[in-house]
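Troubleshooting: if your tokenizer reports a length mismatch, compare your output against this known-good record of 362 residues.
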Amino acid sequence: MTGFSLYQGMTFAMTMVFKSHQLQSDNHAYIELSKETLKRQLSILFPVAGIIFLIISFSYFVATNSLWLTSQALLGALLCHFLATLNKRIESPRLLIWVFIIYTTTNCIYGFYTDGHNLLNNTIALTIPLLCFFTLRHQYACWYSLLFGMYYVVMSADEYIQKHLQINEALQNISAYAMVLVMAYLLAQHRNEAINKVKVTAKKDFLTGLLNRKGLEEQYLFQAYRCNRYLKDLSLILVDIDGLKDINDRYGLDTGDQILIMVSQFLKQQLRPADSLARMGNGEFCLLLPDTSQTEAETIALKLIQEIKQWQLELENGKQISVTVSIGLTLVEYQNFSLDYIKADSALLRAKNWGKDQIAIS
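Known-good structure output:
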């Protein structure tokens, strides 16, 4: 079924009035843990860990006079200094944290075999899941932490069997590790949800929740290629709210935002499943209509320009605001979004110059 018949069969809507409190944006942005952020955090972690290794080496030297344990701790301090230096120069901080985690794990395992479950070894063991979930991919962190946790449980059971640990001490150590593991997992899960959210919001307009230009360009490339391959028409419509600046100046920016949300909701109701809608900035929206000829796009544009007048925003003081829109449309030709956008924008400018509330075709 063509776009013309779909839209032609729809009846004109009655006047719709929205309360100002009903039109609020519910889109939220989150900060992704980027490579640059990780590098900054490692620039703190490595020096601090180096200082801790120096303190441990001094304590070994004073308390045990063990040159082997002292040298191992000094080696850890040197490694941290080396990693901190590399962190400033290389582009892959995750490789550095893998080196640090493996070295820390190795030292912890060696400590269990030599000293048993003392306070230092247990403390180092508890840092393993935190380091993993803090820096590694979620799947790798889960497997690494669980495998090390299984080893930790086996070592605790072995210590109990050999009577080096009481049953309550072994259970306390295992419980502590399990609690840290679960907390690290939950924190990483929250971070991953935030990362997924930011990937979505990077392609969406913060205020209206519609696609932004970046998100629309992806849809444009797909639809332009498809329509060109199957010899189908693809139309692009620019819709601009008339007098939005005057509304902002007269009623305030919050009212202007509510007008934008109202118009976005109106436009979303006009979409077919294959259509795409984006907010390009200020009061301008872009509709991408696959399998739609220029004649069908003109019919759709006429319907939009007539029905938007039936939508009204009611302010808290009872004042009702209605808007009109100007429309520029073009048939996609170049498979280059910027070029086709320029065509539609030129038509939109003509519609504005004609006195607004008009349709112009490129």
